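Example 3.
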Amino acid sequence: MRTRVFQGLLLAVSVVLLLAPADGAWARKRDASDKTASAAKAPAQAAQPAVAVKLGFLTAIVPQGGPFFDPVPPVLGVQGARLAIGDNNTTGQFTGQRFDLTEIVLEAQADPLPAFDNLLKQGIEHVLVNLPADQLVALQRSVGSRPVLLFDVGARDDRLRAVDCAGNVLHTLPSHAMLADALGQYLLQKRWMKWFLVVGAAPGDALFATAVERSAKRFGAKIVARKPWEHRFDDRRTPASEVPVFTQGVDYDVLVVADEEGAFGDELSYRTWLPRPVVGTQGLVAAGWHPVHEAWGAIQLQHRFREKAGRGMREVDYGAWLAVRAIGEAATRTRSVEFAAIRDYVLSDTFALAGFKGVPLSFRSWDRQLRQPVLLAQPRALVAVAPVEGIIHPKNELDTLGYDESESGCRLSR
Amino acid sequence: MPARGLTAALALFSLLSGGTPAAADTLYVTLEKDNALAVVDGAAGKLVKTAKIGKRPRGIVLSRDGQQLYVATSDDDVIQIIDADSLRKVGTLPSGDDPETFAMDPEGKFLYVSNEDDNLVTVIDIAKRAKVKSIPVGVEPEGIAVSPDGQWVASTSETTNMVHWIDRAKLDVVDNTLVDPRPRAASFTADSKQLWVTSEIAGVLLILDVATRQVIKRIGFKIPGVTAEKIQPVGIRIDPHRRYGYVALGPANRVAVIDAAKLEVVDYLLVGQRVWNLEFSPDYTRLYTTNGVSNDISLIELPEHRVTKSVAVGNYPWGVVARP
């Protein structure tokens, strides 16, 4: 308790001190622009011709299903980026900055390299990417020494934050490890310590399952069983008959499911042999963004997105919104559209992004992951927000989610 | 003059008796989740009644004559006019979409409304029940205040992170000041020389000089045993003599007391959970707080700064006004 008090104090002091220089810089620049503005008697809006920051968005069509009552759109993220571009440009009216977005949507399975290279040739320096990990790594390797910042707005793979990390790739959505740790913290709080892990066949399922196993170790939980869920073309196998048999004979507190594509996870609840809750990718889910999230002004972002996109905001949309807003925030605070100024500010300790989660968000210096609270929700209600009450950390409680500096497989010098 | 003599006599009486001059007042508290208005006897600290009103009531303002309440029912997209005695709806004002907070001019003729979803400040003529103008501001306008001298309307935008200075004569934005992340409430001092703005994400109170529209002081908060992330400043009240200012600190469950001359924090008062908005009693002997999570209001005796009572009012108490 004593150390915790001390840490709280330290943090309060550092936040206040760190914010000071940026505004000081603004005040100085503002003085200069005031003189020109008053001389010309120009209105506050569009006082000077806007200078532009050029952004690109690169994604591919994913022919994904989702149930009939909640279909997953084939293109995700673009609408989130557009909304944030609008937000940045509204602010830009007052600061004389403009933000342009070039969107590239590739056919499924297409090679993204030519399109990416084309974006860079147009002078675009900030590229949002919603593509699988392998493709993202290939794009990053093609950049070479060119001044480009990539924002990964969709991939959860922990390896992108470890062996495959890069100084010019920033990740805006929580990693698999962060999601699993959020669940782990909540299960620890509930003292539900015996986990039965069910793993699907999709590539992401095994990755999430690995993260769950790591969380179990971190929070002292026990994986009492781990079973693969296999798809077989056998129509005698119904959920009502299969799930009780599948879960029989194990003594556990919760069923942790790894099924990112929603192939079977929704069939598990209420069908287990023992009456046990389902958590993971279905049931109680961990997420960077969720349809039920309304606190800390999130309801406004939900409303504004729905009005613009004609559908609810999904996680990748939120990831894209964050990336564009991060660039906008840096441009506003530094009063600059220059690449180096924006990059340095985004990666600095001064950077603080408001992301509708009640605390300032910033990028971890060691792996370029955006530190942020993780929502724990069931389909129609928020259950908790991680880090959960009582979890402590010497520097920032958000760093109890995912790989902390000392554990990271990535070492990036500033 | 006779009124003044009476006040002096009352003050003397209270000094002699050692008690508080129990000037009666009636509080009206909007209950965001109950779609209702709670009526509280402020002096006695007792819930008197609860009346259903429109959907998701938040911002609330008392008319200058004290006869009517203006309540933003956000999900109905209107501001309701409610008779303060009968609690009956007597009309609506065209507020624009999703009204949350709004402010009234010193004469009590106009309302200035933040329309969060549309990035607008809507100006309403109360007597005509008509919209005068919509003024474009930054993304997600939130806090709004009219300077007591009638010159300025200050609007804070939560995502643009600016104070937009609207010239009341022109009804246009004439200047903008960049402030710390997620500015929430704004409040002018009685002499119209300073604007106080809370920044929720940075956890600070900013003092702006109105003449230059620059930040002149940034006040942080430190509470032993409370982590920095929990300190989320929201509502502000400053007494008319500018001796003390008060800032609600959200989930830190405290009200910060600011020495308004030295601009320093002098005390933290423990109140209910997620303290949100503040209001003085009409005679400035009490400060009321709405506490969104503990579903009550706290009563603070002034100038002793003593929290004396909490009154359960209903779900998500949001705004509060006090009627003499």
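Chain A has three domains: 1-39, 46-174+290-372, 177-285. Chain A touches chain B at residues 1, 4-5, 7-9, 11-13, 15-16, 19-20, 23, 26-27, 30, 43-45, 87, 90-91, 93-94, 297, 300, 303-304, 307, 325, 329, 332-333, 352-354, 358-360, 397 (CB under 8 Å).
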